[in-house]
Amino acid sequence: MFVRAGITRRVLRLLHGLLAAAVLLLLPLLGLRGYWLDVITRVNIFLLLTLSLDLYSGTTFYLNLGIPFIAGSAAYTIALLNVYQKIPLELAIAPAVGVAVLLSFLIFLPSLRVRGIYFSILSLLLPIIAMGIVTSQPFSLYLGGEGGLSYPALLYSYTRSLPARERLPFLQLSYFYISAVVAIAAYVLTYKLAYSDLGFAMRAIGQDEVLAENAGIDTFKVKVVSFLASSTLAAVAGALYAAMRPPLTVDILIPANTLVPPLTAVVIGGMGSIVGPAVANYLLLIVYELLWDFVGRWRTVIFMALLIAMVISKPQGVIFSLYLKVKGYLATKLRSLKT
Amino acid sequence: MSSILVCDGITKRFGGLVALDNVSFKVDAGEIFGVIGPNGSGKTTLLNVISGLLKPERGRVYFNGTDITDLKPHERVALGISRIFQGSRVYYYLPVYYNVLLTARSVLKDSRLAKARTTWALTLTGLLSEVAELPTRLTPYKLRMLELARAIVTRPRLILLDEPFAGLSQEEVGNVISIVEYFRRSGTTFIIVEHKLRYLMKMAERVVVLNNGVKIFEGPPKEAVKNEEVIRAYLGVSIGAST
Amino acid sequence: MEELKYILVFGLLHSSTYLAFSLGFSLILGVAKIPNLAYGALYVLSGYVAYELLTSLGLPYYIAAGLAITLTGIASLLIGEAAVRPALKNPVGIFITTMSVAYILEEYFKMSMGLRPVTLPMLSGTVSVAGIPVSNQWLLVASVSLAMTLALVLFLRKTSVGVAIRAVAESWEESLRLSINPLMVLRVTLLITGLYAGMTGVLLSPLKALTPSAGWTPLFAAFAVVILGGVGSVVGTAIASVIYGLVEQAVTFTLGSGLARVVPLLLIVAVLLLRPHGIMGRGE
Question: Cα separation of A60 and A203, whole Å?
């Protein structure tokens, strides 16, 4: 819809993207192994959550605190399909994502019709209520109780033919590549969506929803479509996480685990700019993983304090200045258009 | 004479407050129709009901014979109703050009047509030299022109103006009026809410006067000025005074 | 028949607490236009503080309770200064900051007080209400809650501060014109809501075990009640809390307390479906 950046800019952007993707994919060849491979895999999955949050909440400013619920629904669905229906994890990913997206959509649909804080309140409630239900009778019996649901991890059946020593590295490497490819694909899709006509409509809603309605934008339709896209990302993250890290416990529903890290990445990276939160995702979350060895559970508290500080001091995000630069560029480009 | 807009028995409540009480009136196609009344009489609320922002508890709104009461704002924009808000309400994060293009693109699916219309609207409102500027750098007059450009870009049949003259000098008001007249000649209808009665009374063919949400008069401005209830409602503020 | 009486009696008792608690919540929602997500954490805070004062310092109940409530009020003010006031221009921001405060407090409680449920001593003896034995603590809770509600209503109607609060809840700009200082009003409101959260915490902790995460249930109940009954409408909130209390008891009775957690969720979704133009929507 808006000015397509000049050819030089686009080529540069493409090169940056390819470089980042190449670095990511080549990391194991550069020596990344074992524990660190796991860390990056986890951060890749977190990227999906960060993108999910940024795509919807970063543009429309409707805070979707229900990410843990969406991811958790997918996670539990895939686990249950495997444990009780004996469906292999590889095949169960798609249905799990479908179920989670459908469920979230149905629950949130009434709140998408109206303006105001209903949506965010509903999203706040869901993970905590879901956690309460999952841990109480009679559901906890089927959902594994304290130890969670156990099942063989993704691709485990393919390791049977390998000697025992090579099984773990094989799985780690496979998981890394799966997560990396998914992360790159998710980034590209989210980027395209966020800067499409739909993306601009979403930002218009975020800046002034009443004005958007009067500018002819069907805000309900825009919110529905972007919500579906956003929740698909979160659901994929949940399904992959469950597949790669059995046993599945209720921890995935805990906002402190699943919501706070992506939220921090989005706020620091700059709400609405896809590049910013993506970069922040890798910078911050690697630190986040490291913090576990030093401060354990306090790391969530630290991140939350960071969140508060960021919101108060620099709500547009540290990396958001990039977006402002792009905007300034558009303006200069226009000035040259009319002369 | 066909009525382009009919409001029939509009009642709007906010909690215990009755903002509009059984308000009915007709607006003829191609006329300039004024909505006047003292502060808090429900003028903006009325515009909100017509543009679709609010749903009345009772009453219906008809546009060109169609009942639009249940339609959402963007659907009404597509039907040909445009609206300007009180106070400069634009997208401050988008340059001037894109503010207008956003509306054009939302309603006109053809992107070339949208771009052409945008340029046309910006030319008409004299904003060509500011296309790349952010609205934060515009004077109040240019801001108002931007809002007008946004409203006219879809070539609507009915335009609702909420206090279009606020904050403008005499010359600037004249420019706004000439744009209104230009569109009126091509058949666009205007409903204008204004405090600056000196200008409105000269422009409008008919007015409706609201007081505390109740319609107390509907007819030509000349008769409104002489109406006892209207004078009482304004409590001694002379209609000829500038605000 | 017995079950019905049980549901009725305990439902209404719960309703009385929800009423006072929700009014405090509704107040800050009306003034700051944003829900204070740390409200539930304040409830838990006062319970834990009272517990500490009682067990570690051996203070008598009423003094411990009074101190706990006062402390909670002050905590509410501090949270307001740190998390609410700076983010006022940014509604999304307030959501994030107050939510973070709530979680930080929860983590702090987990680490300092542990996960074991904690209770305060309660009033001994029971009274028979319509044939059902009800602890005297419940009567204390109900009567104090109703008194708190009445006090708040009178405060908002009759005192100048109360009127100022209502004016700011209507419109910040208008009250500025009337030379009311909205920031001071915000602070007073934060203090009041803190005190109300504190009182509810101290009153209910003998009856409902206190855990670090116990703040979310009352918070969601307050949400549901306020959304159901309308912000700023005392009558609406009263009716809504009665409905909520009864429905919650009925569900707990038939389906167990696990599923009863779904009640606020269902109520909010139901409200959204039936009255989407917002009880909150006042024009724009």
Answer: 5
C282 interfacial to chain B (CB closer than 8 Å): yes
- The bridge status of strand B17-28 relative to strand B214-219 is unpaired
**How much is the pTM?**
0.87
Cis? peptide before A277, omega within 30° of 0: no
SS3 state of residue B26: strand
- C-contacting chains (≥3 CB pairs under 8 Å): A, B
Rounded Cα distance, C177 and C170, in Å: 13
**CA–CA gap between residue A62 and residue A230 (Å, rounded):** 12
Residue pair C258/A129 in contact (Cβ under 8 Å)? The answer is no
CB contact at 8 A, A176 and A169: no
Q: Is the dihedral of CA A105, A107, A113, A119 positive or negative?
A: negative
Dist CA A101 CA A103 (whole Å): 5
Query: B242 pLDDT exceeds 50?
Result: no
Confidence band (pLDDT; 50, 70, 90) for A330? low
| A210 chain-B contacts, CB cut-off 8 A | 53, 73, 85
| A216 backbone φψ class: left, alpha, beta (φ>0; ψ -120 to 50) | left
> Is residue A307 within 8 Å of A263, Cβ to Cβ?
yes
DSSP annotation of C86 reads: G
- Our CA-based measurement puts residue A214 at a distance from the nearest CA of chain B, in whole angstroms, of 6
Nearest residue, CB atoms, C107 vs list A65, A114, A297: A297
Q: What's the rounded Cα separation, in Å, for the pair C126 and C122?
A: 11
How many contacts (CB atoms, under 8 Å) link A and C? Answer: 121
Per residue in A157-167, pLDDT (tens digit) is: 777 788 888 88
Distance of CA A180 to the CA centre of its chain: 13
- On whether the CB atoms of residues A70 and A316 are closer than 8 A, the answer is no
CA–CA distance from A125 to each of A34, A235, B125, C246 (Å)?
A: 37, 18, 49, 20
Q: A223 near A7, Cβ under 8 Å?
A: no
Q: Please, how many CA atoms are within 13 Å of residue A52, restricted to the half-sphere of its CB? A: 31
Other C-beta atoms within 10 Å of B176: how many? 19
CB A59 within 8 A of CB A202: yes
**Which among B122, B76, B114 has a CA at the least distance from the CA of B96?**
B122
Quick: pLDDT tens for A26-62.
887 777 777 888 889 999 999 999 999 999 999 999 9
Sheet of strand B17-28, all strands in order from the earlier edge strand to the far edge: B17-28, B3-14, B58-63, B66-67
CB neighbours of residue C3 within 10 Å:
10
Q: What is the CA radius of gyration of chain B?
A: 18
One pLDDT digit (tens) per residue for chain C, 284 residues: 777 888 888 888 889 888 988 988 888 888 877 788 899 999 999 999 988 888 888 788 888 888 999 999 999 999 888 887 777 777 788 888 889 999 999 988 988 888 888 888 777 777 777 777 888 888 888 888 889 889 988 888 888 888 888 877 777 767 777 777 878 888 888 999 899 999 998 888 888 888 888 888 889 889 888 888 877 777 888 888 998 998 888 888 887 777 777 787 888 888 877 765 444 433 32
The set of residues, in sequence order, having a beta carbon less than 8 Å from that of C64 and lying 6+ positions away, is: C50, C53, C54, C57
ipTM > 0.90 (yes/no): no
Strand partners, B14: B17
For chain A, the average pLDDT equals 86
Q: How far apart are CA C218 and CA B8, in angstroms?
A: 45
Q: Who among B51, B91, B106 is closest to A207 (CB)?
A: B91
Which two three-digit tokens encode residue A166? 């090579």
- Does A311 sit within 8 Å of C269, measured CB to CB? no
- The residues, any chain, with a CB within 8 Å of residue B20's CB and separated by 6 or more, are B10, B11, B12, B42, B45, B46, B49, B56, B210, B213
CA distance B168 to B146: 14
